[in-house]
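In the present case, backbone shapes were mapped to integers, as reproduced here:
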Amino acid sequence: MSPDASRTFRVVSFHAHPDDEALLTAGTLARATAEGHRVTIVVATNGEAGLADTPGSAHSPGAGLGATRLAELRASAAALGCARVVALGYPDSGMRNENRGFASVPVDEAAARLAEVLAEERADVLTVYDRNGGYGHPDHVQVHRVGHRAAELAGTAVVLEATVDRTALVRALSAIRWTRLAPAAFAPERMRSAYSDRAEITHRVDVRGQLSRKRASMRAHATQATGGTGSRTLAFFLRLPGPLYRRVFGTEWFIERGRPPATPAVDDIFASLR
């Protein structure tokens, strides 16, 4: 993703909820903005069904939490140097789509709204999630479907599916399992069918130079570091010491459908446009 003095590119990064951008794409987005490219973050929902604090608190699930999480998203986007944040405002589905939210919206309806943003931005690249929706949240799976359809409608040239190298993830989680510090949701056995196989990955992006901005993006989502009875994912990641954080988050992975996987995978999200 080396600078190209002859052209800047426009990236739209589509996510299900505020804080999703911090985990899978923040380093890549920060690297893009540092190199002079324009980045817009779009979220399908405000994340109002997320777990945060306890019932009845200022940040308990509901409209108030959604507004707070959008403010956190704007702070995260500012830390990454993003030019614009767009919230589509669909209801947060919850982990089992108990709210009949974004995951239940007709794909073409939501895709048309996202396509409007792609057209406004004249987007060269759209990021979505892989077919599994990462760990399988119904809103994440819907981001995959809606994003690909929106790119068709808008004629966006490149769609990159943000993911994680499943092989590396399971190996890392197995190594730290004995500490009992990792959130239960990240038990190795639960991850064996999540995210993507290494053989599918086409882009392996080095973001080690942007880790301070990625940490700032994570820290912006304060409501998602507390609440519930177990260890929260963001809180766990933010407690990692610097060298371990660098090892865990120094790479971000993407799949570009139609591009043959290479060994090693390319380190340039604009490779198909150059």
